[in-house]
Amino acid sequence: MATSLLPARPGGCRFDLGFRSAIARVQPFIRKEPKATLRNGPLHAVAQQKLMWEALREAVDEEMEADPTVCLMGEDVGHYGGSYKVSYDLHKKYGDLRLLDTPICENGFMGMGIGAAMTGLRVIIEGMNMGFLLLAYNQISNNAGMLHYTSGGQYKVPVVIRGPGGVGRQLGAEHSQRLESYFQSIPGVQLVACSTVANAKALLKSAIRSDNPIIFFEHVLLYNVKGETKEGYYQPLERAELVRSGKDVTILCYSRMRYVVMQAVQQLEKMGYDPEVIDLISLKPFDMETISNSIKKTRNAIIVEECMKTGGIGASLSAIINESLFDELDHQVVRLSSQDVPTAYAYELEAATIVQPEQVIEAVQRVVGTAVPA
Amino acid sequence: MPRRLRSVQKPQAIAAKPAPVEAPAKASKVATSKADLSPEVASDLYRDMFLGREFEEMCAQMYYRGKMFGFVHLYSGQEAVSTGVIRNLRADDYICSTYRDHVHALSKNVPPREIMAELFGKKTGICRGQGGSMHMFSAKHNLLGGYAFIGEGIPIGLGAAFQIRYRREVLGDETADQVCCSFFGDGTCNVGQFYECLNMASLYKLPCIFVVENNKWAIGMYHPRATGPSAGDEEPYIYKKGPAFGMPGVLVDGMDVRKVREVAAEAIARARRGDGPTLIEAETYRFRGHSLADPDELRKKEEKEHYQARDPIPQLKKYILEAGLLTEGQVKDIEKEVIEVVEEAVKFADESPKPEKGQLLENVFADPKGFGIAPDGRYRYELPGFSAGTAAVS
């Protein structure tokens, strides 16, 4: 164990005053992806294993087969098969009306999907890139989110608004957005972020069956993650996932940050730390049972997110933890978030914008202090 | 003098009939015609228009008496459009409205007392007091709602129309021949959703009727100041945007219910038989300000008087009496009955209970699991206090 890497925690101090300066020492040029996991590996690598886009496609296919009112609309979802192949070839099976290729008009087709859902269909609306849905923000907020309430419960809006989001690889600022923070304060919508092959399929199937409008976040860099799916499985949309059980600190993350955290955890384990990792899955509302139980056990919380620090998911989560679990904490809640800057094109600047495993390691060290070797 | 209505009689008017399906659609103007009304239809139209006017004038009174609040946009003057279009529809047809939605709801048979109670913020309101003046919904009457932001209702109506085609072609429901009428104003015709939806309605050949209620003023913006003239014209004609998107565009005198009715009937029939959408521009005028909060300082007295003289309600009354469709006594009976209905609506609204606090958290989510899981592992909606509206929801 490289003990020299472990700065001693200021003895007996409740709040670690060295934290800010530690964050300022982010190593911007180090960016190691878990390539074997995230990159498109050979398809034959592991028998029975699927890629995430295949799992999402299965979810859509199975739900469309089970219920003829389920349809998918968006740009290039039909003949082209979706920009990340989530509806690849499905139009051949279900026809052009159920796999509706729309013109490029997010505001219009979002509203159309909502109107169709109000009148009896179950509509999956794909944003070719989640960022494009900024153009549909009015329909998502005012219509999907609010009109079940403003109509006094007369109309429901069973839509799944989904698509690829997050910071990809040098896609530039507009294609590298994390809209979860923009959407989280819309009343009446649920936000769900999938992260593994298994939960992508099970959550999307549940989202399609939900009577609530669900904004479903996929991550551009996770479509080729490999894994297995469970036959006929539906996962509750409101439940977080325990990724790793531990006792030192609760690391709360979601979407691609789960992999960044787990990469850090490999190192942390070697250093003698025992972190608990929770994948939030539900970004709104938070699964307060899982979060509370974990923090009561570890007495520390680190939030690792890809969205901006200002007004982000972590901001809300941190506030809730401080409000409801203050006495359970031994250390202030630590947030590792993207920098509040537009995502640059250049590799090094992009890497410096989003959280890297090294920052997670450093944060755990700061919060937990010197690891006690097992 | 305003020049707008004169244009209806311009000699350049072409065939009144919308273009045949396969031929390229052409803008058409409807020539004045003798609409044959039966006494029953005449009675229905007059009652509906009179109800619209009485209801709105009562709203003004109630607003000034402090019985209703917020932004209240009255429809007075435009009744011929709502009545002329919606009274042509079947109960299972859809309509989609704007913030000026009370009278559309009335024409679609939503009970006046439930609309008034909604305006009073009572739990007996059509939306349980959760919607208000600009958000009148009635699923029972296929009223898709009042949409308060400019243009956002148009895609919703398009979605209902898509659903009709889907039900017919994918689900094999041969009874799915409904249509959807979306109403909006001249100001809306410069917003993106309008053009996006004209394109999609035409592209997918959806049973949509787009009804532009051109009352010439978007609050304080005179229509020709906001919209450039159509090609070859001195002023903007919205109906001419129809053919550009592959659908008939029709201009109609929106102060004459018989003309509106005739144009609407043709558009509805066209949509119902699967021949696609129509864009109707009805030239009309609101007799009051944009909302009851609008000082209405920009519209000239002469302009108001000009349209006041064309008030659609006395116009219809005159026609009905001259054509001998109804007697003066029968017309009076209709008026008396309507006045009673509106007074009863006010009484009902006034005496209705206010929403209880427990209603606060109802209908946020169709599935209350959307409120999430509490620290003790129960879904929040299962917690004591949730139904009292006091539960924490984040």
UniProtKB/TrEMBL annotation, chain A:
EC code: 1.2.4.1
Which one Pfam family would you cite for this protein? Transketolase_C
What residue stretches are annotated with the Transketolase-like pyrimidine-binding domain?
Answer: 50-225
What does the record give as cofactor?
thiamine diphosphate
Q: Which reaction does it catalyse?
A: N(6)-[(R)-lipoyl]-L-lysyl-[protein] + pyruvate + H(+) = N(6)-[(R)-S(8)-acetyldihydrolipoyl]-L-lysyl-[protein] + CO2
Q: Which domain of life is it from?
A: Eukaryota
Which NCBIfam families does the annotation name? PRK09212.1
The name this protein carries in UniProt is pyruvate dehydrogenase (acetyl-transferring)
Q: What is the lineage of its organism?
A: Eukaryota, Viridiplantae, Chlorophyta, core chlorophytes, Trebouxiophyceae
TrEMBL record, chain B:
The reactions it catalyses are:
N(6)-[(R)-lipoyl]-L-lysyl-[protein] + pyruvate + H(+) = N(6)-[(R)-S(8)-acetyldihydrolipoyl]-L-lysyl-[protein] + CO2
Q: Where is the composition biased (Low complexity)?
A: 9-20
| Alphabetic keyword roster | Oxidoreductase, Pyruvate, Thiamine pyrophosphate
Protein name (database record): Pyruvate dehydrogenase E1 component subunit alpha
What EC identifiers does the entry list? 1.2.4.1
Q: Coiled-coil stretches, from where to where?
A: none
One Pfam short name: E1_dh
Q: Can the keyword tRNA processing be found in this entry's annotation? A: no
Lineage summary: Eukaryota, Viridiplantae, Chlorophyta, core chlorophytes, Trebouxiophyceae
